[in-house]
Each structure stands twice: as structure tokens, then as C-alpha cells.
Amino acid sequence: MDVFGQAILAYFDGDKDAIITTETTISEKDELPVDYLYRDYGAMPILEQKALDICNGSILDIGCGAGSHALYLQQQGLEVVALDLSKGAVAVCKQRGVQNTVCMPILSYADKQFDTLLLLMNGIGLAGNEASLNAFLVYLKSLLKPNGQLLLDSSDIHYMYDAEDISELDNYYGELKFTISFHDLSETFGWLFLDFERLKVAAEKVGLRCEKVYEGEHHDYLAKLTKISC
After folding, report:
1. Strand locations in 25-92, DSSP E?
2. Residue 224's closest CA among 37, 45, 53?
3. 64-73, 118-127, 161-170: the lowest-pLDDT one
């Protein structure tokens, strides 16, 4: 249904008040102003700025959205490929000036390897659930050059539960169902929020070293994953 893409297109076409409604299995409905997806470097959270600051070489921006990260990196003279499943998002990226775009799921992309893989705005959520995490990391590892880096952020949402609620869960507490809506369009999908220690264990199992680069004030963090030398 391309809910994100339709919202991004609507904003680009003049609907500056466009809003995406979000809801999860553990939170009530919230609103995401679409203009947030168009922010420039100065308006980005510190975590995102730090990630962009350490990008190097050739870069694959996974889940590029409206292209704000890709545009900034491109302006710094870096080689960037912006990838998104959303046709609407990729169309806007092109119109905003992103030079290299790809419209497909990340697990279908295998054209080349990169110095930096970028997954911001809880990009690790694309794994969907913890059971798929190892395979997801293995695939991302295959897209890294020998000395490449995978930069991703997530949040430990433990604080959103009571201890009793967590003890009664059948699955990891970071596995959520996420619903997004824009006008009469709506879609629900699995989304993963991952605490750092669990990410580190999963990364090491597939031969990736995991380092916490930055820890935010709201249980969020930025991690850098690199290949472990044999």
C-alpha cells in the first residue's frame, strides 16, 4: 500500500500539514508530522548527526525515506546509493536530487559491496523479529567490504513494560506489531526494537564486532558493526 511513500509524496506535492498516524501493540496512537522526514542535518537528532559524521567511502542508505540522509552525504562529496522498498519515497528522492536510487527490499539487493551500510531511525527494525535477526545480519555482512562498517540505531524499550508484563510475554519484549496510517491507507507489520547487549551477542554469532558509538538520553543508541578478522 506504500503508506509512507504516499505521505512523503503528498508533502512533496504541497501538503505541508501531512501527518502519519502510528500505533504499536504497546502504545496508543501517535502522530508523525511528515516534515520530520524532510529535516536537514541541523535539525537531526545528535545520534543521526554522529552516524552521518562517521560515514565513509561508498554508502548504502537502507530505508532512505525522503532521502534526507542521502542528500546530506551526497553534498559532502560521498558516493551514496539510496534504497527503499517504497516507490513513493524513491520517486521523491530522485526529485530532491539524490543521484543513485534503488527501489527494492534490502534482502533482494546484491549488486555490490559498500564501505558503509546505514540503517537509521531504528533501521534494525527491518529484521522484523528476533528469529530473523541472525539471517538479516548475515545478509548485511555480505554487502560489506572487508573493512566496511554497518551503522545502525535502536532503542531498549524495556522501560515501557512493567516487570510482571515482561515475565508473561512469549516473545522478546522488543518485538512489536507496528501500524501506520495516512488518510484511508493503513498497513501493519512486525518491527524490532533491540537492546544493545542482545544486538552485540547476535552480531558476534555471525562474525561481526559490535561497538556502541553513542548512547542517547531516551534509551536509544548508535552502534557500529564491523567484520571480525579471521
Report:
1. 27-33, 58-62, 79-84
2. 53
3. 161-170
**Distance in angstroms (rounded) separating the CA atoms of residues 168 and 156:** 18
pTM of the full structure = 0.96
Three-class SS state of 63: coil
Task: For residue 148, report the phi and psi dihedrals to the nearest 5 degrees.
Answer: -75, 170
pLDDT tens, position by position, 86-114: 999 999 999 999 999 999 999 999 989 99
Which amino acid, residue 105? P
Burial (0-12, 13-18, 19+ Cβ within 10 Å), 113: middle
Question: What does the DSSP 8-state code read for residue 120?
Answer: T
Contact 101, 17 (CB under 8 A): no
Query: Can you count the helices (H) and strands (E) in the chain?
Result: 7, 11
